Amino acid sequence: MDRRGSSGMAAQSGPPRRCPRQSRGSGRTRVPGKLPFMSSALSDPADTLAAALARAEADVADVTDQLDAIAESTALVPDDEHDAEGATIGYERARLRSLLARAETEVRELREAAGRLSDGSYGRCTGCAGAIAGDRLVALPATPLCLTCAATRDRR
After folding, report:
1. Could you read off the pLDDT of 96-108 as tens digits, one per residue?
2. What is the 3-state secondary structure (H, E, C) of 79-125?
3. CB of 58 within 8 A of CB of 154?
4. pLDDT score for 34
5. Which candidate, 32, 41, 30, places its Cα nearest to that of 135?
6. What angle do CA 23, 27, 33 make, to 5 degrees?
7. Contact 143/132 with Cβ under 8 angstroms?
8. Is 131 helix (H, G, I), strand (E, B) or coil?
9. How far apart are CA 143 and CA 156, in angstroms?
10. What digits encode the pLDDT tens for the residues 108-128?
């Protein structure tokens, strides 16, 4: 006899089916709670911070170049308010200034994290002195706060 659930579909008996993408074992031992990429990404936080800092500094240089190009292109006609392209240029300047501020903040935060690394406090929360989770450091290498302290700060 066919058993049907509330959805009208036949109920399956026996063990649940596995997702075809789940492997039955890769031969590697996996530490619970750790992603496979974490160990290599956190093995040398100095390299991780240096790479992130290089990218952030390149972003600052790139956005600064774009702002300079806009300033140069509008040097002959400084009154862009009455220019047909004025609103677009004004918007682009505001957008680039915002991106520049964010990139400069990121550079500052990464330099502070490098300072914490050199004094031995990298990976420790500046709020509660507890350990910052490894996966949080992989995602946000410059973070000075554990997830709990960051959530508390964001609620204020």
Report:
1. 999 999 999 999 9
2. CHHHCCCHHHHHHHHHHHHHHHHHHHHHHHHHHHHHHHHHHCCCCEC
3. no
4. 37
5. 41
6. 75
7. yes
8. strand
9. 18
10. 999 999 999 999 999 999 999
Residue with tokens 């302290």: 149
98, 63 in Cβ contact below 8 A? no
Residues β-bridged to residue 131 = 124
Give the pair of three-digit tokens for residue 104. 């400069």
* Residue 10, helix vs strand vs coil: strand
Question: How many angstroms separate the CA atoms of 42 and 117, rounded?
Answer: 12
Tokens 């935060």, located at residue: 109
Tokens linked to 67: 């702002």
User: Once rounded to an integer, what is the mean pLDDT over residues 62-80?
Assistant: 83
